[in-house]
Amino acid sequence: MWHIILIGYIFVTLMFSIAQPGWARMLIYLTVFTILPTVFAFWVAIVRKRNKRMKQERQQKHKSLPE
Questions:
Q1: Phi/psi zone of residue 30: left (φ > 0), alpha (ψ -120 to 50 degrees), beta?
Q2: Per residue in 10-25, pLDDT tens?
Q3: Would the CA dihedral through 45, 48, 50, 53 be positive or negative?
Q4: The whole model's pTM is what?
């Protein structure tokens, strides 16, 4: 579900930055409002996925150890 919201956000901010009158302003808006938040969102998703996988591996290892 979050990917639909992210795609919409990227589209809106990209169109907003393209509509700016100057190249410098367009690049600043593109970087600040589109590229940086998108990279951050992907980083958060990757870290959460990695943490879930590590937690599952830890639980599996704990279950497989004899008591």
A1: alpha
A2: 999 999 999 999 999 9
A3: negative
A4: 0.78
